[in-house]
Amino acid sequence: MKRSIPDLLQAEQPLVMVTAHDYPGGRHAEAAGVDFILVGDSLGNVVLGYESTAPVTLADMIHHGKAVRRGAPDTFLVVDLPFGTYHTGVNDAMRNAVRVIQETGADAVKMEGSTPEVLQVVGILTRNGIPVVGHVGLMPQTATAQGGLRVQGKDDQTARRIVEGALNLEAAGAFCVVLEAIPARLARLITERLTVPTIGIGAGVHCDGQVLVTHDLLGMSEGEEKKIAKRYAEVGQLVREAIARYAAEVRSREFPTREHSFVMKDDVLDKLY
Ligand code: KIV
């Protein structure tokens, strides 16, 4: 059964969030019983093959969000607002968030940052009934301006900005806040100060919940295991091995066998000669 926001806010066990970007991803995440699913704009990296999340469009998010919702009709669904869709004024942000909610069937949207402009958008959306998940720490949409994809908040100045950002997001109406790639002790302090749940990725064990990009946890992403993600399977390797075995069997005519072929009666065949 789909969890409600009050239910998520009162959870006693750590909350579990994973990303999904397509119909099978939604189905598997729902069957595994996660608390909520995020259609993250990590879509850009792990599915669409971009080097960053910046090129991901609203149309991409809506297309993939709809597919995930078809696979996971009974799980709380959060869809990322991609880069540029909430940065050109509150009217544009509201219009784009409404499209995401109406067209995908999502329960909430997520956006990165805690600038005064973003806080204003969070306030308008939540006052108009669109639940918002905040996101501070490393923010992949603007990672270039943050010095690259690296841990944030290691010095007192940036750490203080992240704490204030999280507090301001809660005050603006965010019902939970993602903390990405920050020291565990900083995440603990933020978690203690917020009344809404924190959801960590690369933020240590003290958050109220955890989120991972499913492609990372399944071993389907490019490259080495990332510091912020644990691999629970080597699905990428299994996929490569299976396709290579299929290719070998086609080339050696081992596949298809009779088992995978359809029969035709002799008298029907005779009429064709
Ligand atoms: O886009 C995404 O998948 C995310 C998670 C890493 C939190 O924002």
What does this structure look like?
The protein is an alpha/beta fold. It has two domains: about 5-235, Phosphoenolpyruvate-binding domains (TIM Barrel, Alpha-Beta Barrel); about 240-270, no CATH class. It has eleven helices and eight strands. It has helices at about 5-10, 25-30, 45, 60-70, 90-105, 115-125, 155-170, 185-195, 215, 235-250, 265-270, and strands spanning about 15-20, 35-40, 75-80, 110, 130-135, 175-180, 200, 210. Strands 1-2-3-4-5-6-7-8 form an eight-stranded parallel beta barrel, surrounded by six helices. α6 (about 115-125) links the parallel β4 and β5. α2 packs across α4 (about 60-70), α5 (about 90-105) packs across α6 and α7 (about 155-170) packs parallel to α8 (about 185-195). The longest helix has 17 residues, at about 155-170. The termini are far apart. The mean pLDDT is about 95. 3-methyl-2-oxobutanoic acid binds next to β6.
